[in-house]
Give the backbone structure.
Amino acid sequence: MILKMQKLTLIGFLADKESILRDLMKKKCVQINGPENIQDYESIAQLAVPGVAQTYELEQELTKFTSAIRAVAPYEEKGSAFSKKEISDFSSMLDKEIYSEAASLRDEINSIVKQIAEQKNIISRSQLQITSLEPWTDLDLDLSVTQTKSTALLYLTAAADVNLEEFEAKLQEATPLCYVHKVSSSSELSCLLLIYHKDAQDAVMNVVKGFNTNRPDFASLKGNAAENISSLKNKIETCSKEAQRLTEQLKVAATSSKLLKKGFDMVTLQIDDQKVRENIFQTQSVFALTGWLTENDMDKVKKILDKYPCYYTMVQPEEGDDPPIKLKNNKFVEPYEMITEMYSLPTPDGIDPTPVLTPFFILFFGMMLADAGYGLILFLLCFIGLKKLKPDEGFLKNAMNIGVACGLSTIFWGVMYGGYFGNLVTQVAESWFGVTVTVPAVFDPLNDPMSVMLLSLILGAIHLFAGMGVKIYMLAKRGHLLDGLMDIGLWYVLLIGLPMLALPVTAGIGKVLSIVGAAGLILTQGRHEKNIFMKLIKGVMSLYDITSYLSDVLSYARILALGLAGGVIANVMNIMGTMPGLNIIGVVVFVAIFAIGHAFNLAISGLGAYVHTSRLQYVEFFGKFYEAGGRPFKPFKANTKYTLISDKEDK
């Protein structure tokens, strides 16, 4: 169901603003809107005093915490992948001393990370220098020496495409006052030392420019290549030890990661608070806000506000208002609200489809996956996950609850179809033991697909009829019951009557129903037209909609298709697994193929069942009545990531 909303308007003294906002944040039941929603806002807007915006600075703080948390994450004590949040009271989330400790730890960690990065950069640069110096180790010459009194030394690396003989010949042609010494050569490059008279500088340079050569930078080096390599290796060793020492400090800091995460959530809380403050109107002495809350939370909010000298009203939404949407269902239906939300929330005057959607979602998912073995695995995984992990309220818990119900549905339909990891029992008995075993089944989708097809179409028709029934209910709720009976009810009569014509026993009744339904549609569907001929024409044309209903029903053939696809893949896996025969190698091969193949099939078929079951809800079912477009209800609260804020202190 859609909870009814109340519009809150609050005016209070600026001195009480902090306390009121804190209390509202704790209770998590009021969505605060922008100041423009205050009545006659334009006439008082000039009185507003801007608040101090700190969101940017806080986001910078949050970024620092994020970096620190990531830095220590590899060294944290590993727990459950879905471990529960740390529980903390609200007052401790505002404790400045705790935040100061967290910020100090954060800065210390980020400083260590920076130092480690610096050490690694030195190591990386040193390794590159070693790589560049290794080809020069045969040269026993101080690399810093580049000239004598009358000669110059030029260190060169020549690419593989340089013809060294041609290069030397060109130099000899240019000047006889030059000597080329090849230090080393490989398939990639050659290292050369040119010694030439300073008077031949221009001639040598003109030749060098004509070839693909580079001049390594040895200006900062002292000693020969081997000595420099030895020095660099010592530097790498020293930096590595320093990096290791700093890493040990990170490991120690990781033991305090809970404090770090609490600091992260404390900043998150402040950011949420600041963003809400942007929607609050204030002057030098008072503040005002508007918001939404559910009728169920009215007493809770009144209890908070009555503690302060403030003025407030809670009224029903007026025409033109766009209240947010909050759904409320029993514990069984509640997880399926996320299926509705993935499509879109209903409009404020619409209807929550979740209670009607739920049984059909479970039913169709089971029919599409339709294997008792797969259903048992899905059920056990989700059931054990709920019991052991005990996830907090949210997506994971809802998904697991849906998995439990859909797993049981899959087991049921697996028994109906005789699917136990495909035809595992039959295949193993026949291939390994030469025995024919028949698994009992009510329906056999492989050998008698038409029966399953007919069942799918019948259930699909019931699904569509349920959607049409919801439409009648919506119209009746809005005072248009007669329109619902004429626009939807007559289609019930026609669509029930037409299939009955196919059976001799019901053909007579079907004929009457078909005639009554068709005639009723012809006479009523043009009722809004003024011209009598247009009334008749529009009424006749409305019968064309029968093709839409027919295509919608045929869409449910995907139930058979998905069930067949999963069953065939499972059977293929079983055949492949039993092919080596009953021996040690055959058993090993069977176990491997069984585990990998069926895990793959369960994942693919399960995903397909979810997607296509959802499609049947969103396209065929919702298409008959659903009015989407509602805004989600987002109460003012602390959206913490690592900490669960307890409200025990408020009791």
Residues 405 and 430 are 34 Å apart (CA to CA). The chain has 21 helices and 13 strands.
